[in-house]
Specification:
heterodimer, A: mainly alpha, 11 helices, B: globular
Chain lengths: 312, 318
């Protein structure tokens, strides 16, 4: 993108104003490819609806009928009905309201962890690639060690360290889960960014920038990082369902947010204990997780096809 | 090649050392110990417990003991009930191994067949079905699939059972027929295998499609080989190389990645033992099982790397 701007400036300087209205950049092309992808668009629409219902509809309007922790002792373990659309749990809490809370938690943790992955992954990856052989080796060996541990186990170990301490800024329990997931998942993105940067460093336009006397910082920041953006966006989009899965797994194992918070994983886990009596307590939260992860995966697939047409 | 092999094998040692050190540091950074309880205990009991597990020594001393013991094959004692950690691992690994192996076999056979059929039927109905299956199961987590399977096949139609493991618990029980109950095996294996099956199907499909477009397949057809021979001997055989390379890591993932499935189906394996240890802050067990998992994954990666060097001589190692 930066290079295209440079070209456009150059052309303008030569007195030949290009027809800007007709010009189609990389991002316009990618956008056109994305909106032609039916699955990706469906995923975006569904996700938008989920966000709307979970963050707005749960508090105002006709969907906000029960609070997630309201108990109704006259309707314990009831199936879906007009009163309780998804039924109720063993304490008579409305499952629809609890699934909405679970969706809020999943989305917050998924996007939060993806943000941690983005920040850590890009900065460490770029620093490793540009910092010379020593820093590069350090990152790669560290990655070697990390991939020899099952990811969910690494997250569990990191979580048990983080959860016991009092942190100055991180007071929220959700933040701890976010940091535990992001603190493990960033390695993949760091390796991706490192690989991209190392190959970009050999390209002619970087050589040209260096020959023109651009500083190292400027080369990295304006010439190389924007060119890694496509693959990074795709990787981050796939990091979201990964984090949603990790959070649900932690909740299912009883290592997630403490009760009464209704994370989707916790809901599946507590529903699973009463599965012989009321299957709906499992079916609805499990479907919610599956739908959320499918949508983000379709979105990621669509973005990958749009940003890197060669990979198809 | 020989130097590469030796270096690659020697690399296992520092990786395991690093994993051991990292888990040691992480576990010792956790505040509170396994004996931290709500109930108050006499001071003498606390002191006796801490002496027993060296909790009062300095971190360096504990680290020293820990490394020395690992080298001697001693992973310490569990703080719940005084079992040797090695004993716990010996008791549970076999179940986890069977679960992982069965899931791997299911994933590999389903994935290969589905991927190949999809590719041979490119853009036909079978292909759409196969790709649909692969996309769906590639993004649904194992325990969610497990939950749906449980609802369908253990609650609605009661064909399968939900808890326990239906295979021999110890290698010694292999020949006793009482140890087997396939009704307990199907659901956890399918739930664990689905994601890998979908992944293998995707890779196989892509690889077969690529080989089908190569010149030597066209040559094989042009010289009048029967379709069966073209497909089986020329296409599939060559398409298998990239598939084989993803299978090693997948095997490691399946053998080490059944924490959730084991907890879900109450299977007495290494994964469930690890989760129980995390809940009970049983550090020695956590460090021991983590080391075992790291060893399995590292050995699997090593095998793949070395096998790759043998299978594909075009690869050069510096």
């Amino acid at each position: 993108m930066a290079t295209q701007d440079a070209v456009r400036h150059g052309v303008r300087a030569l007195g030949a104003e290009p027809e800007l209205g007709r010009q189609r950049g990389l991002w316009t092309d990618a956008w056109r490819r994305l909106i032609r992808n039916r699955l990706a668009i469906t995923a975006i629409v569904v996700l938008a609806l989920v966000v709307l219902v979970a963050f707005v509809g749960a508090y105002v309007g006709p969907l906000a009928r029960y609070a997630p922790n309201d108990q109704n002792y006259d309707a314990i373990q009831s199936g879906p009905s007009t009163q309780h659309w998804f039924g109720t749990d063993q304490l008579g809490r409305d499952l629809f309201a609890r699934v909405l809370e679970g969706l809020r938690i999943s989305l917050q943790i998924g996007i939060g962890a993806a943000a941690v992955v983005l920040i850590l992954g890009v900065s460490v990856g770029a620093a490793a690639a540009m910092g010379g052989k020593w820093s590069d080796n350090l990152l790669m060996r560290f990655a070697d060690i990390m991939i020899s541990l099952p990811e969910i186990l690494a997250i569990i170990l990191l979580r048990s360290v983080l959860v016991g301490h009092d942190w100055p800024i991180v007071t929220n329990k959700k933040m701890i889960i976010i940091l535990a997931i992001g603190g493990v998942a960033w390695i993949t993105v760091a390796r991706l960014v490192r690989g991209q940067m190392l190959s970009l460093a050999e390209r002619d336009f970087v050589l040209a920038a260096r020959a023109l006397g651009a500083s190292r910082w400027r080369i990295v920041y304006t010439h190389m990082l924007p060119n890694t953006l496509g693959p990074v966006i795709v990787a981050i989009t796939f990091a979201i369902p990964g984090a949603i899965f990790a959070e649900a797994a932690l909740g299912f194992l009883g290592l997630g947010l403490p009760p009464p918070a209704a994370s989707l994983g916790t809901l599946v886990s507590s529903g699973y204990t009463v599965i012989q009596r009321n299957v709906w307590n499992v079916v609805f939260p499990a479907s919610a997780i599956a739908a959320l992860m499918l949508c983000f995966t379709f979105l990621g697939d669509g973005l990958r096809d749009a940003l890197d047409p060669r990979s198809r | 090649m020989i130097t590469y092999t030796i270096r690659r094998i020697l690399w296992v040692v520092p990786v395991l050392w690093a994993v051991a050190t990292i888990t040691f540091l992480l576990m010792h950074a956790v505040p509170g110990g396994p004996f931290t309880e709500d109930k108050s205990k006499p001071e003498s009991v606390i002191q006796a417990q801490e002496r027993r597990y060296h909790f009062n020594d300095s971190l360096y001393q504990q680290y020293g003991y820990y490394l020395r013991n690992i080298v001697q094959g001693d992973l310490g004692i569990s703080t719940r009930g005084d079992h040797q950690v090695t004993e716990i691992i010996r008791r549970t690994w076999f179940v986890t191994f069977q679960l992982g192996l069965l899931a791997f076999l299911v994933a590999a056979s389903v994935g290969l067949v589905l991927g190949t059929l999809s590719a041979l039927n490119h853009n036909g109905p079978l292909d759409y079905l196969g790709v649909g299956f692969a996309t769906l199961f590639a993004s649904v987590p194992s325990f969610i699939l497990g939950a749906f399977l449980a609802v369908l096949f253990a609650v609605n139609i009661q064909i399968f059972k939900l808890s326990g493991w239906g295979g021999p618990l110890q290698p010694a029980d292999i020949f006793s027929s009482a140890a087997y109950d396939w009704r307990k095996v199907v659901l956890p294996v399918v739930a664990l295998a689905a994601l890998s099956a979908a992944y293998i199907a995707r890779v196989t499909r892509a690889s077969v499609l690529e080989v089908m477009n190569t010149d030597y397949i066209r040559t094989a057809r042009a010289k009048g080989l029967r379709e069966r021979s073209v497909v089986l001997r020329h296409t599939i055989k060559n398409a298998l190389i990239p598939v084989l390379t993803v299978m090693g890591p997948l095997f490691a993932i399946l053998v080490t990645g059944s924490f959730i499935i084991e907890t879900m189906f109450s299977i007495p394996g290494l994964g469930r033992e690890t989760i129980n240890a995390v809940t009970a802050r049983d550090y020695n067990v956590i460090m021991g099982t983590t080391l075992v998992f790291a060893l399995v994954v590292t050995l699997a990666n090593l095998t793949v790397d070395l096998a790759y060097a043998v299978v594909d001589p075009r690869i050069r190692y510096s």
